[in-house]
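User: Hello, can you help with two protein structures?

Assistant: Certainly.
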Amino acid sequence: MFKKYDLGKDDGNVLIISVVIVALLIATGMGYMQWSSDERWDSAYEEATVQAYFLAQMGVIEQGLQYLRTREPSDLPQGTVLLPSKVVPDVGQYHSTKVSRVVSLGSGSVFQRSDTYDVYSTGKTSFVDHQLGNRKYGQKKYVERTATMRARLRSFANYMYLTNYEVTQFNEIIWFWTPDTLYGRTHSNDFIGLKYSPTFYGPISTSQDRFRYNAVGEVHFEYPPQFNVPPVYFPTTATSIRANARPTISSHNGAFMTWIEFLGGDGIEVYQYRLGTPPRDSSIMHLPVPNWQAIFVDGQVEVEGVFQGTLTLGSAGDMWLIDNIRYEGADAQTGWFGDMTVTEGNMPHMLGLVSEKNIIIRNNYVNGRENGYRQFPGNHQRHSIIINAGMVALGESFTFEHQNDEWDAYQGPDPYDERGYIYLKGAVTQWRRGYVHRSNHVGTGYGKSYNYDFRFDRRPPPFYLEAMDENGHGLFDIISWGEQAPHK
C-alpha cells in the first residue's frame, strides 16, 4: 500500500509538470508568432518607407528639377508653384510637389533678389498590416516620406573665368601657361589651350571633347576636368541691368563719354565730356552710396575710384578702366581681402562691371604707360591696376589699350612696355578671350594676379547676368538633398 501511494503521488506531479510544460510551449509559440508578426510588420514598414522616399525623390527630379531647368530666368517663380502628382503602378505615388523661391533679407531690411529655390515632394505607398492583435489587421497601412532639394540659379559670377571663344579674331590661340593660377570655376565653350604648367585649383570644364596642348608640362588639376559640358549661352544685351537701372545715363547718341568716379563713403560722381575733347570735371549728377542698385550708361564709360555699396554698372559701349577700382577696406597695393580660398573676411561691398562691348584697361600713366613697371617698380601710382569686381564683356573681350601692334599708331618703348600687374579680386566673363600681355616690343602689357571672390559663388552682384543654356533656360547648381522629418 505504501508503494502504491508513492506511485500515485508521482503520477500527480507528472501531470502538473506536463500541464506547465504545455502552457510554456503554448506561450512560447504565441510569443514567437507575435515576434514573427512584428518582424514581418517591421520588414514591410521598412520596405514601404524606402519606396516612399524614392517616390519622393522621383517627384523632386521629374517635376521640381525639370521645372527649374526648363524655365527662362525671367519666368522663374517669385513665390511657390505647385506641380502635378503622379501614380506609379504597383508602387505608390508622389504628391504635394512644389517649388518655392527662398527669400533673402539683405542689409538695411531690403529684400534682395534670391536665386535659390527649394523643391519638395512627398512619396506615398502602402503595405498590408498583418500584425497580430492589431484592430486593423489585414488592412492597408500608408507610409509617407518628403524629399527636399535646394538648387541655385547659376550666374556668370559663379565662374572665375568664363569664355565663349579662346581664340582672337585672327584665330590666334591664347594659352593658359605656367604663371596662370586660377582658384575658382573655369569654363569655356571653346577648346581650352594649355601650355607648360598652369594650375587650376577650381573645377575646369569645356564644351569640347578635349583640351589643346602646346609643350605641356605638369598641369595641376585639383578636380578632374569635364568635357562635352553643355555650352553657356552669351546674350548680346544686359537685359536685367537695363531693366533695373536707376538711373540710365544717356550718351546723347554716342557724342559724349561718361566718366564715373567712385568716392567711397561720399557716393558716386558722374561726369560727361564730348568725345574728341580732353576730359573735364563737368559733373552731371551725384549719387549716394548704392544699396543693391544698377546703373546703365547708354554709350561708353570710364570708371575709377574707391567703391562702397552694392552695385552693377552696365554700359552699351566700351567700358574703360582708367585707374584702380578698389573696395573700401581692401589692400591699397593689391586690392586683396580675406584669403585665397573661401573666406572673404567682413567685406560688405560688391561691384559688377558689365559691358555690351569690351572692357579695356586705358593706356595712361597711372596704369603703367611707357614701361611704367620697369621704370618705377616701387611706385604703384605709376604702374599696375587693381580691379575689385565681377566683369562681363558681352560684345568682345577684357583686354588692354595699345598693344604695340605694327599697325598701331601708338608705339611704346622698345624693348619692353611692361605696365605692371592686373590685381583682380573678382571674376572675368568675356565673349572672346582677350590679350592682357603680348610679346610685342619684347614684352607689352600686364602680368596676371587673379584671385576669385568666393562671395560670388553664394551671391552675385545686383542684377548680374544669369548663366543659361542655348535654349535660354537657366543653369542650376544642386546645393543640397535632404528629407523632412518622417510622417508616422
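That covers the first. Now for the second protein you mentioned:
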Amino acid sequence: MKAVNKQKMYFSVLPYTGSFILFLQKIKEMKKWLFYSLLMVFFVGCKAQSSPNFAVQKNDNTLLWEVSGNGLQKPSFLFGTFHLLCRQDIHFSDQLKKALNYSNEIYMEMDMDDPATMLGGMLYMNMRGDTTLAELYTAKEYARLKNYFSDTLKMPLTLLQKAKPYFLVALLYPRMMNCPSPAGVEEELVKLAKEDKKEIQGLETIQFQASVFDSIPYQWQAKELLKNIDSFSVNKEEFKTMLDYYKNQKMDSIKKMLGKSEFGSDKYDDLLLNDRNKKWVKKLNTIMKNESVFVAVGAGHLVGDKGLISLLRKQGYTVEPLENK
C-alpha cells in the first residue's frame, strides 16, 4: 500500500475497520454489548450544564479543540481519535471529560452505540454481487493469502470470501501492536458517554462508509492487501511511529505525515478524507447552531488545509486548541 494510503487507514479511515476487528475478537460479549446499548434510549434529551471555562493551549499539539463564534450560543468541541490502540494507552483528560459533560450530544463518524451499526456492518463488509476473494487473485496469489490467514492470523479465509479486501487489511493491525487485547478509542469514549448519560449520533451511516470501499476497485484493494502482507515489517515500524505521534498529540507531525507521500498524491484522498470533511462541516453548521456537541472523529480528519479545523475557520468559527493532559 502506498505510504499515504496506510496513513489514511491508521489515522482516519473509518472507525468501522477498528470495530470490525474488535467484533471478531469479542463475539462472545455481543449480547452484553447489545443490552447496554439498548439502555441508551432512556438517556436521550439530557441537558448540558452551564458553560465552564476551558484552558487554552499555547500550541496546536493537542487532540482537543473548542469551536465558538460565528453566531454560536454555546461552544462545541472536536476530538481526534485513533481507531485502534492498546487499552492502557487510551486516556481521557479531565478537561476532555468536562467538555463531554458540557455537550448536549456526542457525534462520531457513525452512531457507535446503535446495535444496528455493528450488525449492519457485518453485512456491508461484503463485496457487491457475486464477487469472491478467490476471483481477485491468481491461483498462486490466493494460495499465499490463504496460508497467511490460516498460519499467521489463525483465521480461515473461507469465512471471509465475500469481505472487501480493504477490511481485511485492518486485521493486520493487531499484530503490529504490543498488547494482547487492542481497544478502540471510540469504543472507550462510548463507555464514557454512557456514564455521562449522553446520546451518541453519527455523522455518517454504516451504509455510506461501506459504499466508500465499494467506490475503490476491488482488484486494487486485493493488490493492496497482498502488498501489506509482503511489507509487514516496514508497516509495523511506521505504525509505531504513528502511535507515538498520536499518544503524544503531535498534530504537526500527523499533518506532515499525512501530507507526505514518496509516490505523489493519493488518488483516493478526496474519497476517504476531503469530501467527507466537507459534508461533515456542512452538517455541523446546522447542528452547532442548536446545541453544543462533542465531535470525535479520526485525528487525520482534523489537520491540513482540507481538515475540519481549517474548514471550520474558513466558515468564520474560532477554533482553539485546548489543554488535554
